[in-house]
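Progress against Task 2.4 (sequence-to-structure conversion) is shown through the following example record, which the project officer requested during the mid-term review.
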Amino acid sequence: MKISKKSQYGLRGLFRLAEAEGFLPMKKVAKAEGISSDYLEKIFTELEKKGFVRSKRGPSGGYALAENPEEINLKMVLEALENKFSLVECVEDECKRMSRCPVAPTWKKLDKEVKEKLELITLKTLIEKNE
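Structure tokens generated for the chain above:
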């Protein structure tokens, strides 16, 4: 399982929104994280479509979380931003060999455990660990 730059940047941007109260301008979020504002804008547009953030135009506009930080966990965000999100491809795509593969049960178990751990880490958890 490799977490893409897109997901890393998305999580870092969401962290900044979770820290803030109200709307944050995209340029401010991008600058704080050292990320291109154009690229982060594309990621946030995707996160907005999936219900994680909301946007507001105008001088007091920008982006804000659509939900409370304790309601958004890492698994949710990674599943939203990654095309495939499994430890190994065959766990998600059920290959023909799955029923006779000697390693398949181990992959499935590990995949499940990783996802369960990611569910426990919310944006609020990340904020608390950085205080």
